[in-house]
């Protein structure tokens, strides 16, 4: 496993906004440990080449370090922090956005028997594994194309497909495979997640969202917990509080109004739950946010 070349490529091409000229490829560099920061996970592969990071999803904590990768198959509210990073040994990470359509295409091209059949229940939306040498090799070859822009247009899509194939057939392949299956439990829960995110200000009955997902209430609740580590109501609260935090960055003096806009009828309940989630009252946290704006890139990289 050639982590040395991977580190060198990541360090050389890292940008403040994490983007690269190759579509869907992200690079992160962090020079010091960070405080816990809430964000959305994205559907992404994250490979750590140096340093370490912790991600909290509901009551689960995922720790990954150099030579390991994390898969997120559903875009969920998480809290992440770098635990090992310094100016001389910065945390370095590679990210690749995962697209269900590309996963589905590879599954259709695979020969019968090339991979296990999909299970009936939804796997967790996140998982950590040691990165096999074949995966690291493909990531390194993809990053080399940043120094060969003439070749990147043709070769980058091929290598990205190779990386995805390594994931599909690897230790965490179940979660990635279900990402591309229209009738998988994961796809049904992802549909519910999108509905709750789009209607997070509205009260809802779990029975109605289960029906929308094409599941019985008991199966929906069980699978939703397995994928998100939260109940549907807890998930809605996470989305409300994260949206409130974004609004407060631009409207720091309208705490009551922001609480109402994200669905809270009680200002005291909003303030109490906000403080429990972010460690500070809304007005105090808003001032901190204005000096440290959030980015829209996935939190795992």
From TrEMBL:
<feature type="region of interest" description="Disordered">
    <location>
        <begin position="278"/>
        <end position="301"/>
    </location>
</feature>
<dbReference type="InterPro" id="IPR018062">
    <property type="entry name" value="HTH_AraC-typ_CS"/>
</dbReference>
<keyword id="KW-0804">Transcription</keyword>
<dbReference type="GO" id="GO:0003700">
    <property type="term" value="F:DNA-binding transcription factor activity"/>
</dbReference>
<dbReference type="Pfam" id="PF12833">
    <property type="entry name" value="HTH_18"/>
</dbReference>
<dbReference type="GO" id="GO:0043565">
    <property type="term" value="F:sequence-specific DNA binding"/>
</dbReference>
<dbReference type="InterPro" id="IPR018060">
    <property type="entry name" value="HTH_AraC"/>
</dbReference>
<dbReference type="Pfam" id="PF06719">
    <property type="entry name" value="AraC_N"/>
</dbReference>
<keyword id="KW-0238">DNA-binding</keyword>
<protein>
    <submittedName>
        <fullName>AraC family transcriptional regulator</fullName>
    </submittedName>
</protein>
<keyword id="KW-0805">Transcription regulation</keyword>
<dbReference type="InterPro" id="IPR009594">
    <property type="entry name" value="Tscrpt_reg_HTH_AraC_N"/>
</dbReference>
<dbReference type="InterPro" id="IPR009057">
    <property type="entry name" value="Homeodomain-like_sf"/>
</dbReference>
<feature type="domain" description="HTH araC/xylS-type">
    <location>
        <begin position="190"/>
        <end position="288"/>
    </location>
</feature>
